[in-house]
Structures are given as structure tokens and as C-alpha cells.
Amino acid sequence: MVVRLEGKVQGQDVIFEHVQGDEWEAVIPPTLNGIYIVSLTAWDDAGNVAYTARYIIAIDMDALYVRLEPYPFWADVLPWDYYARLCHGGDSTNNMKIIMDLGETRHVRLKICSVKKEDFNIISATYELQKLGKTGLEDSGVCTIQESHVIDTVITPKEKGTYSLRITYTIADEVLIDTVEVKVMG
Hints:
CATH architecture of the largest domain: Sandwich
CATH topology of the largest domain: Immunoglobulin-like
Order of helices and strands: EEEEEEEEEEEEEEE
Structural class: mainly beta
Mean pLDDT: 80
Radius of gyration: 18 Å
Number of helices: 0
Shape: globular
Strand content: over 45%
């Protein structure tokens, strides 16, 4: 059961209050007018992240209009050629996490899918690897784009701990970002 729901729009936190059943409501900051990507995260009663999703939200405060629609793309984490402890291979409606041992070099591959099942091309893709709690990037570079809409990144984290692997890619005139949590064990 979802006990907490939070969102983020343009870096601003949006806190939801539980109304009843599956209904939640939030106050939208009056400064938001336009079209934005909103990230929503839900927690269950055990404190686990139960669900993460992205939506496109269109807000016109003058017309008192708000429209919410599904984000048009999602990414799947694919298993490695040499499978080892893939925690989760889901889409962006779930957390994308992997676990690896210190000293390993791994391919992290994301399969990008269209919600509308339309054909598309990934024009470019880059990555940034940053250890949480530290300033500056540990590594960054250009990803390989493979057939079937797969983005391939090779990483070698240098320390134990939790990292954020941020993959930025371009489809048509849109720049999209997916983040994979990388936990490095000793």
C-alpha cells in the first residue's frame, strides 16, 4: 500500500496529501505555467520505493487548466552478457538499479522504448557517473548506440558506495534523461 507520494517539477518539490483509497492531491506552485516533466515517487508502508514514474504535465494557471499524460519513452535495463546480480530490469516506471563489485568493469545497457510503439532513432547519447555525496563527476563520455534502440555504456566505478549513472540521449528534437543507481560492493 502506498503511504507517501512525492513529486518534483522543474526542481520544485510537490508534496501529495492522501485523500482516500488511491486518491492523492497536491498544490501546484502558482509560478508554474507551461509544459513540464514531473517525476513521481511512491513509498510503501515498509519504507521501500514502491513506484517511480514520469509524466508530462501542462499547466495554464490563467485558464485554470492542468493536463497530465504519460511520458512518451521509457528505458529498460538489460542484463549483462555475463549476468551478475542485476537487481532490477524494469522500465522508468520503476527504479533502475544494479549492483556490482569494486574493481569490475561493466556494460550498462538501456533499451529505449516508445509508449506509442512508433519508430524512432536515437541521435546521440552521453553518460555521467557520479558518486553520491561527492562533488564533480568520476567519469563521463559518449555512449554507443546499438540497433534495436539500445544505449550501451561501459563503467568502472573507483570506490565502494552508491553512484548515479545519468544517461542523456536525443530522439528527434527531444533531450531525455534516465538515471540508473549503481551500488558498488567491496
